[in-house]
Amino acid sequence: MKLKTLLTLLITAAFSTQVAFAAEEDSALAKEMKTMNKSLRTLKRQIADPAKKEDNLALLATIKKTIEASHKLDPAKIKDVPEAERAAYKQKYNAQLDDLDKTFDEVAAALKAGNEGDAKKAFDKLTEQKEKGHKDFGADDE
Fold first, then answer.
1. Best CA proximity match to 69, nearest among 34, 44, 23
2. Measuring CA to CA, how many Å separate 2 from each of 6, 65, 77?
3. Distance CA 82, CA 94 (A)
4. What is the pLDDT of residue 4?
5. Cα 7 to Cα 1: distance, rounded to the nearest angstrom
6. Are 31 and 24 in contact (CB under 8 A)?
7. Residue 81 in domain
8. In a domain, 32, yes or no
9. Is residue 107 within 8 Å of 60, Cβ to Cβ?
10. CA 140 to CA 142: how far, in whole Å?
11. How many angstroms separate the first and last alpha carbons of the chain?
12. 43: domain CATH number?
């Protein structure tokens, strides 16, 4: 009897956990941002290492693709914006993505030139841009 009760409890817990995870499934934009964030963390650790130049450029290429894909998606907070203001909101979102893209171009140019110091300085601007974007568009920081 105890085994039967225990098994029933475990099966119920397993199903409820699956339902909870399904309910919290990420949006397409959240998935793109997670990809970008993972690449950013790796880049931050190794940006000053000249031996990692090609790896860093590959990470930047991945990030550029996520920015391009993110342009086609809406931020989560857009559903809370009145219909009349959505176009301006989306335009602001895209403008911030464009600024982010330009900063990544600066990082890439510095890395290609072999100037890790300038790459690090350009990379440091990204923190401010990330915080502003997350504040403006309702992203949850992890």
1. 34
2. 6, 54, 48
3. 18
4. 67
5. 10
6. no
7. yes
8. yes
9. yes
10. 6
11. 44
12. 1.20.120.10
The DSSP secondary structure of 123-142, one letter per residue, reads: HHHHHHHHHHHHHHHTPPP-
Per-chain mean pLDDT for the chain? 84
Residue 49 lies in a domain: yes
64 domain residue, yes or no:
yes
Question: Would you tell me the crossing angle of helices 53-71 and 86-112 to the nearest 10 degrees?
Answer: 170
Domain that residue 64 falls in: 27-137
Count the domains in the chain: 1
pTM for this one? Answer: 0.75
Token representation of residue 19: 């339902």
d(CA 127, CA 43): 13
Give the tens place of pLDDT for each residue, 61-106: 999 999 999 999 998 888 888 999 999 999 999 999 999 999 999 9
